[in-house]
From TrEMBL:
<dbReference type="InterPro" id="IPR011009">
    <property type="entry name" value="Kinase-like_dom_sf"/>
</dbReference>
<comment type="similarity">
    <text>Belongs to the pseudomonas-type ThrB family.</text>
</comment>
<feature type="domain" description="Aminoglycoside phosphotransferase">
    <location>
        <begin position="32"/>
        <end position="253"/>
    </location>
</feature>
<protein>
    <recommendedName>
        <fullName>Aminoglycoside phosphotransferase domain-containing protein</fullName>
    </recommendedName>
</protein>
<dbReference type="GO" id="GO:0004413">
    <property type="term" value="F:homoserine kinase activity"/>
</dbReference>
<dbReference type="Pfam" id="PF01636">
    <property type="entry name" value="APH"/>
</dbReference>
<dbReference type="GO" id="GO:0009088">
    <property type="term" value="P:threonine biosynthetic process"/>
</dbReference>
<dbReference type="InterPro" id="IPR002575">
    <property type="entry name" value="Aminoglycoside_PTrfase"/>
</dbReference>
<dbReference type="InterPro" id="IPR050249">
    <property type="entry name" value="Pseudomonas-type_ThrB"/>
</dbReference>
């Protein structure tokens, strides 16, 4: 948990959170967590995940914007870790501290299965991944907010994209390259078939795979409004760095991943071939965002990441592609959805 929040956390808070979900602290298994304290618990012979965060980081309405959409997706047939209500029937439990701040607790069904392994890293996994994202994108086109107050952020409201707030004022080369990229992306067209509420972080660390190959998605904490193409590019950003004997280079991984991912995606939603031309900029956008995240860490940044900062910086300045690859080579079938 974030240090400023951890300083406020104590056994009384934990006991109260557990009580509101009908369990005792002794029944909680601590799973750690950076931005929230995360626990596993059993109830009625089923496994669940309890997350405890704070109003320093999130508001009740902002969390409800995530959880209501998450459960909408579950009702629409997407395999996700659904949010469950507390014993009081609340999706978010508020535990006041007395100074205007509060801890916020929520619980989810635990996803079946386990992490992705090298044994299943291949076409079948990629296609299933595409089906999940395709189904999410299909459903989100018809999602209606219950209340504007719970609306999630637009892509450009992302805290980690505030260059001038977090980067040194004298780092004008990075700021100029970043603002040039942001300006170009701001100009992209939007409509309901290409832009909407997205997960924005469904890399292999945020889903489990069961013995049948079915993916269950979780950790929707970063969900927000974005281009569907960027939702896919964010996944690719991480997965193209996963080298294997079958796909030994970024280009080989990129081609295999996208080819089979889009096959699965098109079973659920139409994929516009023009999206492929946007991938280079969206990959650079993720690279820029992570550079800013590393700067925000300050003195707490691990040494291995600190050593990578000069290279990371130069890649942004030089507009270096994240992968040398012609994305238009990826086959896309004519729309049938």
């Amino acid at each position: 948990m974030i240090p400023a929040i951890q300083e406020r956390f104590n056994d009384q808070i934990l006991h109260e959170a557990a009580n509101r979900y009908g369990i005792t602290p002794d029944g909680l298994k601590n799973l750690g967590g950076f931005e929230a304290n995360v626990y596993e618990f059993q109830r009625d012979n089923s496994a669940y995940i309890l997350k405890i965060t704070h109003t320093i980081r999130r508001s009740v309405n902002y969390l409800l914007g995530e959880l209501e959409w998450l459960n909408y997706l579950a009702e629409g047939g997407v395999s996700v870790s659904r949010c469950i209500p507390s014993v009081n029937g609340e999706l978010v439990e508020v535990i006041p501290e007395g100074d205007g701040h509060a801890f916020l607790a929520m619980a989810y069904e635990k996803a079946p299965g386990s992490r992705v392994t090298k044994e299943i890293w291949g076409p079948d996994l990629f296609r299933e991944w595409g089906r999940v994202i395709g189904r999410i994108h299909k459903l989100t086109q018809h999602y209606v907010l219950r209340d504007p107050a719970v609306k999630r952020q637009e892509w450009y409201e992302e805290e980690h994209l505030k260059l001038r707030k977090y980067l040194p004022a004298d780092d004008q080369e990075v700021i100029a390259a970043g603002e040039e990229l942001l300006t170009r992306i701001h100009a992209l067209p939007k409509d309901s078939t290409s832009y909407g509420l997205c997960h924005t972080d469904l890399h292999q660390g945020n889903h489990y795979v069961d013995e049948t190959g079915k993916i269950t998605a979780f950790d929707f904490d970063d969900c927000g409004y974005n281009w569907f193409a960027n939702d896919i590019a964010i996944i690719l950003y991480y997965e193209m760095q996963y080298k294997s004997e079958t796909y030994p280079t970024r280009a080989a991984t990129t081609e295999a991943f996208l080819t089979h991912f889009i096959e699965g995606y098109q079973e659920e939603n139409a994929f516009n071939p023009e999206w492929l031309t946007l991938f280079p900029d969206f990959l650079r956008l993720r690279h820029l965002l992570l550079y800013i995240v590393l700067h925000q860490a300050g003195d707490t940044l691990p040494e291995k990441y600190r050593q990578e900062l000069p290279r990371h910086r130069q890649e942004i300045i030089d507009r270096t592609p994240r992968v040398e690859f012609d994305f238009t080579r990826i086959p896309v079938n004519a729309p049938t959805i």
